[in-house]
Amino acid sequence: MKNAVAALLASSLLTAHATDLPATAADHPWVLLIPAGTFSGRDGRGPYHAGGKVKLEQIAAMTRRYAGGTDILVDYEHQSRNSQENGKPAPAAGWVKEVQARDDGLYGRVEWTANAASHIKGREYRYVSPVYFHKADGEILALQSVALTNVPNLDMVEISAHSVFHFQPPKTEVPMKRVLAALGLAEGTGEDDVLTAVNSLLTSSTAIAAAAGLMKDAKSEEVMTAVQSAFADRKKIAIAAGQPENAPVDAIVSALAAAHTAGTVDPTKFVPIAAFQEVRDQVNSLVTHKVDTDAETAIASAMRAGKITPAQKDWAISLHKADIKMFDDFVGKAPVLTSAQRSSTAPPAAGSAAASLDDADLTVMRQLGISAEDMKKSREAMEAGQ
User: Fold this and answer.
1) Those residues with Cβ within 8 angstroms of residue 168's Cβ, 6 or more apart along the chain or in another chain
2) Contact present, 224 and 233 (Cβ < 8 Å)
3) Which of 10, 13, 39, 379 is deepest in the core (most CB within 10 A)?
4) Where are the beta strands (DSSP E) in the chain?
5) Which of 25, 119, 137 is nearest to 77 (CA)?
6) CB of 327 within 8 A of CB of 317?
7) Beta-strand relationship, 13-16 and 127-134
8) Nearest CA-CA partner of 111 in 147, 70, 74, 78
9) CB-based burial of residue 300 (10 Å sphere; 0-12 exposed, 13-18 middle, 19+ buried)?
10) Per-residue pLDDT tens over the stretch 272-326
């Protein structure tokens, strides 16, 4: 995921601006880096758009993904971007340990070095200059780095020319192709749709982390560990209840309740029902969220490919949840429909098996080449399994 975000940002523009830094900033770690709303640099460049709280949350999430497990550098006069040419050292002035979206902008919690704190208190440096990625229309995407400076604005061309990325795209393939493939998008998808897909992925990751009891910016490895731990606890409870480790949750609860009623509960083998139900609820929440997320993602991809019409969306979601293989077979065989094909539906004869099927069922029946009777049976089986 980090490579995909880096490749996306590598194709965007990079700009710096400067904001006032009070002397008290040396003693207060949170510093405003990017103001909310629309703004321009001191020399008139812009405008740039950071949006409101929701957009700032997206900028913060994209920044975390780009930085990965490393802190964001704060240097002097952007020297880290020029050291290869002028040969001068590029000491750190501090490190941004975390970013936070607030109502008035994006803040960074900066851990200043002793020298930098002294410079700030002595008013030897008066401005903080964040560097950020943005689209051609000025929409800000993510924070890249920060510098202490006394120059209100850096030369935009100079900044772009000295851009350095940790991610190096393969020479044998256009990076955006890999980004699109990783997001399940078709080649040629526009930039706005790519950003929408990335933000959706970040939102889903945040929701899963919250369901697992983790911080919203938890790393993917932490989320995976929490999910695996929850499933491991469920298996232990199932075995202690005398059930197969993959037994349904309701069967495990019934076994525990029956043992309790019979007065044969062995405290060395059974856990309190409250503790079990807590684990069960956590597992169910994670499983339900994953099933829903996988279904929504698959249906959205199929609709973009022209394999599923909006009228078929609810049916397709139900099919994906009930039988992923059947869904994949359908999408694989379905042709890309034109608008005329989607709307050309003849009404079924009264009293026939097809009369009990809706438009989505009839479309699927024709595309798979099955009879109305078989489609009706498949529909009834799906409804019975829900």
Assistant:
1) none
2) no
3) 379
4) 13-16, 19-20, 30-35, 37-39, 48-51, 72-76, 92-102, 105-112, 127-134, 140-149
5) 119
6) no
7) antiparallel
8) 74
9) middle
10) 777 777 777 777 777 777 878 888 888 888 888 888 888 888 888 888 888 889 9
